[in-house]
Every structure is written in structure tokens, then in C-alpha cells.
Specification:
Elements (H helix, E strand, L loop, with lengths): L10 E2 L1 H5 L9 H13 L4 E6 L16 H5 L8 E7 L9 H8 L11 E7 L3 H13 L3 E7 L5
Parallel strand pairs: 1-2, 2-3, 3-4, 4-5
């Protein structure tokens, strides 16, 4: 049986994952070429980077992936935009909702971000569910990347 691309959703996380090698500091020209290439390749979702809470040391724009940064690039119409948030960061300092209000100040309808993916360990999953609900209530699609699950 042959499946069409409509049965499969492709998510590319090159900028987010590749940022570990260059502190998420990609040139605007490279980002634009990348977006055009993944759109042409039929990718459905592009994970543009993180929304880090901590700000120690220099990190480029794909470490924080703010709405302002996302509006500064030309995102092809056929791409949904995702950002990743380290679930553990929600439990530092301010509190979960206060942190989310800072990182996602506007509802999804007013943001270039369509999807928020949580990177979390299995032990953090339950504690992260209220954050997922909060984002979902504001119109964001939410996903989880369960890390090191074989270590649990």
C-alpha cells in the first residue's frame, strides 16, 4: 500500500538540534535558505529553536526563538512553526504559569508559533501536563519529546 504525504507529518529540527554546535547562532541568510529548502522538500513543521529560560552566556536567536525573531524571517506559508521548551526550566524560580506567561505572552492566534514541544524526562511528564494544558487553552498545539526514556 502506498501512502501519500498527507498521511505522514514531517518535522525538521535542524536549527534547534544543530544549535548545540554553534550556540544557535545561524546567519539570517542561512536560516532563510534552510526554510525555503525544507518547504520545497515537503516538510510540514519546522522547529526553529528553543525558548530557553536561562540566559547565561551568549546564544544566538534560535536559542530563544522569540516571536519578534520569527517575524523577521520569511516563513513559507506551507510550514508550521514549532519551538522546544525544556520542561525542567519551568520548575526553576518563578513558577510554571508565570514562566509561560513570560515566554508565550500572546495566544497562538497572535504568534508565529503554532506548536510548542516539551523536552522532558519521564519523571517530569506529569508535572508538565498543566503547562501543556495552559498552552493548549491559548491555541497552541503541544507535543512532548520524552528524553532518556530507557534510563527510567
Amino acid at each position: 500500500m502506498i501512502h501519500s504525504n498527507t498521511d505522514i507529518v514531517f518535522l525538521d529540527c535542524t536549527l534547534r538540534d544543530g544549535g548545540y554546535y554553534n550556540d544557535w547562532d545561524f546567519s539570517p541568510a542561512l536560516i532563510q535558505r534552510y526554510l525555503n529548502a525544507v518547504a520545497a522538500a515537503g516538510v510540514n513543521i519546522v522547529e526553529m529553536g528553543f525558548r530557553f529560560v536561562r540566559t547565561a552566556g551568549f546564544k544566538g536567536p534560535c536559542a530563544f526563538t522569540t516571536d519578534d525573531f520569527l517575524r523577521s524571517v520569511n516563513i513559507p506559508k506551507n510550514l508550521d512553526v514549532a519551538v522546544m521548551l525544556n520542561a525542567g526550566d519551568l520548575f526553576l524560580g518563578k513558577g510554571v504559569i508565570e514562566t509561560l506567561e513570560e515566554l508565550f505572552a500572546v495566544p497562538a492566534a497572535e504568534s508565529p508559533v503554532d506548536i510548542v514541544r516539551f523536552a522532558c524526562h519521564a519523571r517530569e511528564f506529569k508535572a508538565t501536563l498543566p503547562a501543556a494544558d495552559w498552552l493548549h487553552e491559548r491555541g497552541y498545539r503541544v507535543g512532548f519529546n520524552i528524553m532518556q526514556i530507557t534510563d527510567q
